[in-house]
Amino acid sequence: MNHDPLALPLLDFLAYRVGSAYLSDLPRMNGARLARELEQIPAKAASLHDWNDALEYLVQAPPEATPQAARGRLLERLNLRDALSQRTDR
What we know:
Distance between the termini: 36 Å
Strand content: under 5%
Number of strands: 0
């Protein structure tokens, strides 16, 4: 993916990429799948506000000070959520 700013807000773009018609489906989706899509989006492609919105909406984490930090925390928490849910599914 290039480093141009996204044409849509980050959460809308993510919903589009994973084929979800509704933003409300995103928090219940597989964390690793969401993380794979987000890994393709550079931190500077979305605003700090968008990254922090995604961080709060998807993983209920507090805001970060930079887009890079928010993206990193979001990826970390999505992968952790997925790992924890796999453990409890056994």
